[in-house]
Protein backbone atom coordinates (compact mmCIF):
# COMPACT_ATOMS: atom_id res chain seq x y z
CA UNK A 1 0.00 0.00 0.00
CA UNK A 2 1.33 3.42 -0.96
CA UNK A 3 0.09 6.35 1.09
CA UNK A 4 0.88 9.98 0.38
CA UNK A 5 -0.07 13.19 2.10
CA UNK A 6 0.99 16.52 3.45
CA UNK A 7 2.42 19.63 1.83
CA UNK A 8 5.86 18.24 1.13
CA UNK A 9 4.48 15.33 -0.92
CA UNK A 10 5.99 12.76 1.39
CA UNK A 11 5.31 9.12 0.60
CA UNK A 12 4.82 6.35 3.09
CA UNK A 13 4.91 2.75 2.01
CA UNK A 14 3.13 0.33 4.31
CA UNK A 15 4.01 -3.26 3.62
CA UNK A 16 3.58 -6.59 5.26
CA UNK A 17 1.69 -9.83 5.07
CA UNK A 18 -2.07 -9.88 4.67
CA UNK A 19 -3.94 -9.07 7.87
CA UNK A 20 -1.22 -7.14 9.72
CA UNK A 21 -3.07 -3.80 9.72
CA UNK A 22 -1.94 -1.78 6.69
CA UNK A 23 -5.49 -0.77 5.72
CA UNK A 24 -6.39 -0.14 9.35
CA UNK A 25 -3.45 2.28 9.55
CA UNK A 26 -4.92 4.23 6.64
CA UNK A 27 -8.30 4.25 8.39
CA UNK A 28 -6.57 5.74 11.46
CA UNK A 29 -4.93 8.39 9.27
CA UNK A 30 -8.36 9.33 7.89
CA UNK A 31 -9.69 9.83 11.41
CA UNK A 32 -6.74 12.02 12.40
CA UNK A 33 -6.54 14.30 9.34
CA UNK A 34 -10.23 15.25 9.22
CA UNK A 35 -11.43 17.53 7.57
CA UNK A 36 -8.75 16.91 4.92
CA UNK A 37 -9.72 14.30 2.36
CA UNK A 38 -8.31 10.79 2.25
CA UNK A 39 -8.60 9.36 -1.25
CA UNK A 40 -8.71 5.56 -1.37
CA UNK A 41 -8.12 3.52 -4.51
CA UNK A 42 -9.47 0.16 -3.39
CA UNK A 43 -8.44 -2.45 -5.91
CA UNK A 44 -8.56 -5.50 -3.67
CA UNK A 45 -12.17 -5.03 -2.53
CA UNK A 46 -11.23 -4.61 1.13
CA UNK A 47 -12.75 -1.26 1.99
CA UNK A 48 -16.39 -2.35 2.27
CA UNK A 49 -15.22 -4.65 5.07
CA UNK A 50 -12.93 -1.96 6.54
CA UNK A 51 -15.78 0.53 6.88
CA UNK A 52 -17.83 -1.90 8.95
CA UNK A 53 -15.36 -1.39 11.81
CA UNK A 54 -13.63 1.48 13.53
CA UNK A 55 -10.09 2.74 14.01
CA UNK A 56 -7.65 1.41 16.61
CA UNK A 57 -8.81 4.20 18.95
CA UNK A 58 -12.49 3.40 18.29
CA UNK A 59 -13.17 6.41 16.05
CA UNK A 60 -15.56 6.03 13.15
CA UNK A 61 -14.55 7.31 9.74
CA UNK A 62 -17.10 8.86 7.41
CA UNK A 63 -17.19 8.44 3.64
CA UNK A 64 -18.00 11.57 1.62
CA UNK A 65 -18.11 9.81 -1.77
CA UNK A 66 -18.00 6.20 -2.86
CA UNK A 67 -17.58 5.15 -6.49
CA UNK A 68 -17.71 1.80 -8.30
CA UNK A 69 -16.33 1.08 -11.76
CA UNK A 70 -18.95 -0.23 -14.21
CA UNK A 71 -16.45 -1.17 -16.91
CA UNK A 72 -16.43 2.26 -18.57
CA UNK A 73 -17.10 4.91 -15.94
CA UNK A 74 -17.68 5.55 -12.24
CA UNK A 75 -21.12 5.13 -10.69
CA UNK A 76 -22.00 6.53 -7.28
CA UNK A 77 -22.60 4.14 -4.40
CA UNK A 78 -24.13 5.77 -1.32
CA UNK A 79 -23.90 2.78 1.03
CA UNK A 80 -21.36 4.37 3.40
CA UNK A 81 -21.80 8.07 2.53
CA UNK A 82 -22.36 10.58 5.34
CA UNK A 83 -22.54 14.36 5.14
CA UNK A 84 -19.37 15.18 7.08
CA UNK A 85 -17.18 12.35 5.77
CA UNK A 86 -13.63 12.96 4.62
CA UNK A 87 -12.95 9.72 2.73
CA UNK A 88 -13.48 9.29 -1.01
CA UNK A 89 -13.29 5.69 -2.22
CA UNK A 90 -12.84 4.43 -5.76
CA UNK A 91 -13.51 0.67 -5.90
CA UNK A 92 -11.28 0.01 -8.90
CA UNK A 93 -11.61 -3.29 -10.71
CA UNK A 94 -9.04 -3.74 -13.47
CA UNK A 95 -6.22 -1.67 -14.90
CA UNK A 96 -8.44 0.90 -16.68
CA UNK A 97 -10.31 1.61 -13.44
CA UNK A 98 -7.06 2.08 -11.51
CA UNK A 99 -5.70 4.49 -14.12
CA UNK A 100 -8.95 6.47 -14.12
CA UNK A 101 -9.03 6.55 -10.30
CA UNK A 102 -5.50 7.94 -10.26
CA UNK A 103 -6.61 10.60 -12.76
CA UNK A 104 -9.61 11.53 -10.58
CA UNK A 105 -7.47 11.84 -7.46
CA UNK A 106 -4.79 13.82 -9.26
CA UNK A 107 -7.36 16.29 -10.61
CA UNK A 108 -9.37 16.68 -7.40
CA UNK A 109 -6.91 16.37 -4.49
CA UNK A 110 -5.98 19.48 -2.52
CA UNK A 111 -2.91 20.30 -0.41
CA UNK A 112 -2.81 18.25 2.82
CA UNK A 113 -5.05 15.53 1.37
CA UNK A 114 -3.88 11.93 1.53
CA UNK A 115 -4.13 9.14 -1.02
CA UNK A 116 -3.89 5.41 -0.41
CA UNK A 117 -3.66 2.68 -3.03
CA UNK A 118 -4.86 -0.53 -1.43
CA UNK A 119 -3.31 -2.84 -2.52
CA UNK A 120 -0.18 -2.60 -4.61
CA UNK A 121 -0.23 -6.35 -5.17
CA UNK A 122 -3.56 -6.18 -7.00
CA UNK A 123 -2.11 -3.65 -9.45
CA UNK A 124 0.40 -6.21 -10.70
CA UNK A 125 -2.35 -8.70 -11.54
CA UNK A 126 -4.48 -5.96 -13.15
CA UNK A 127 -1.75 -4.67 -15.44
CA UNK A 128 -0.79 -8.21 -16.47
CA UNK A 129 -4.42 -9.00 -17.37
CA UNK A 130 -4.71 -5.70 -19.25
CA UNK A 131 -1.51 -6.23 -21.23
Account of the 3D structure:
- With 131 residues, the chain is α/β, with parallel strands linked by helices.
- It has helices spanning 22-33, 47-50, 95-108, 120-130, and strands spanning 2-5, 10-13, 38-42, 63-69, 74-76, 87-91, 114-118.
- It has a seven-stranded mixed beta sheet, sandwiched between helices.
- The longest helix has 14 residues, at 95-108.
- The protein is globular and about 40 Å long.
- The protein starts with a strand and ends with a helix.
- 30% of the residues are buried.
Give a nutshell description of this structure:
The protein is α/β, with parallel strands linked by helices and 131 residues long. It has helices spanning 22-33, 47-50, 95-108, 120-130; strands at 2-5, 10-13, 38-42, 63-69, 74-76, 87-91, 114-118. The longest helix has 14 residues, at 95-108.
Amino acid sequence: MLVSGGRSKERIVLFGMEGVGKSLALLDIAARVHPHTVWIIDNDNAWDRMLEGSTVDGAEVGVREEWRWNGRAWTADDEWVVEDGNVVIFHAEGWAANIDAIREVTERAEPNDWCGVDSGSALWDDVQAWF
